[in-house]
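G., the chain you wanted modeled:
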Amino acid sequence: MARHSSPITGSNRILRTVASLWFAALLLVLLLVAMACATVFESTRGSQQALAFFYRSWWFQMLLGLLGVNVAGAMVVRYPFSRRQIGFVITHSAILVTLAGTLVTKYLGVDGQVGIAEGDTVRHFSVPEPTLTVANRDDQSRSTTGLDAGVFNGFRSVEDTGGPISSLGQLQIEVERYLPDSTVSERMTNDNSHGQLAVEVSLSPSGRDDPIWVSPGETLGVGPLTVTLRAVQDATELARLLEEEPSGEEEAGGLVKVVYRGSAFEIPLEDCTDEQVPLGETGYAIRVLRYLPHATVGPNNKLTNASDRPVNPAIEVELNGPETAEKLLAFARFPDFMSMHRGEHTKDLKVTFVAPGATASTTPIEILEGPDAMLHVRFRHGGGGLATREVSVGEAIESPWSGLKFAVLRRFDRARLARGVVPVEPVRETRIPAVFVRLSAGDSARRTWLQKYEPRTVTVNGTPYALVFRDKQIPLGFDMTLDRFRVGYYPGTRRPRSFESHVTLVDAETGRTQSRVISMNNPTEHGGYSFYQSSYRQNGPRSISFLSVSRDPGQAVVFAGYIAVMAGMVVVLITRIGERRKVGRGSAGGEAQKRDRAEDRHTAMDPLQSTADLRTYPKGGAKHRDSEPVATPQE
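Predicted structure as tokens:
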């Protein structure tokens, strides 16, 4: 077969180098090292950072691009192709098809997320393209500005973002700073332009631990109890309060409220105490095991009753159902407590408690400030007794509760709660980015922090503006409602094993309704998108399910490339096997011819050997060498 001459001459050394096997091996080694490092990095820093620093980085994309150039160059330098190169052409073309499929996915694909709470309906999903939206609350005008994803989706703090600057009417907006992860920091300052009283108190073994700030009219938790602050401007009223005795017995009554999948039940406390009461046709029955007017945490973290006064009313109930029997706590002052401690089988059931005689006057710790700024503290303790003490700022005094001291650590008369945003390092997997925004209109300017998906309202030059920093929103084209979200646990543990979302899809044009279940190993497709169960979050009594939304037009191209690569490798293997067999047969024939020629030469040189050959064959016979007969002496 004539050998084809390549159009590539020796002068094209650059092309031959780029298309060489050693350059391909170098690229493959670099890619393998990068992916190994990315795997280790992902185990410590999370998948988001691994994608940003490795797989979506410019240098990783450059390595893939060079690999494509190497494969294409290897085909160019071997053109025109022979029949024995068919497998080579198929394999290298398939690699180029696979790389082309990844480019289609990168530039035409969609990779987003949607978060939806139980009972809510969504019509949009978000893609990782940050935006800043400003809306004028007076005239309802709105402006949305796209932000540079390389900066505002990054994992590094940027002190000077260089913009962007956008406008809404007379308002100018500029982003001055970016934090990849942040948290809210609140501190009390004494610089309010108006008078505002606040005291910092602690109830702890040392009288210094876990302090909180409380203002007049607030009732907040401090240690295991609650505290309130009252400012009394009249000296006579203060004297009356300090001499006040405990009121009579607590009021009778009490109500247990149960809500199960839209059905509500109200049961008097005395009716379900020590006796099961069925909840209609739900299959559940409820029984109150204990009523604690003054629930507190005792030794070994067990809930005990400190007094008969309705200071912190709670009930312990037992729910008996078709699948489980479970004990739950319901606090009158903390109605959402049970939602954080429900089991798998009672997720759709909520119990609340309306306590008898639970009024604000039963707060166990009450701070009274008189007209002379003198502070008194009144303790309501076990048995309904009262104890009143004068307290100075910075002084820790013994409380009626064993092992606990009470102290007023600081007092501000111009208190202001300053809310700020501070960076979090290292960046968390569930990070909350934030931007520092400057708003200006005329001679007035305001600066504020915006955490992602946390809207804020800022007034500039007398006009209120609503701001939100979030990802770009894309319409789904249909309505999605989360009917129910369920979490499966490993037996005997509280570790989630699986979670699934029961959704209803309603097409906007046809009105057709479909019910689907999306779980970790069971995605669903609708409207040209694929939905995958990614994570969830508990928000009080409701669960929020997060679904990944994707559309990958390059997936079919990539799969076709994979199949073609395997087919090409099979063709190469078959071609090599055929060539080896052909070479083997040719080698065997050549060796036989060489042996015959060697024998001819040896016979011509040795007459005795020729005579011996004549004796070997019968009379008239002939010995063949190189297909020519040898005559006997008689001939």
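Confidence is low (pLDDT under 50) at residues 1-6, 246-252, 602-635.

Shout if anything looks off.
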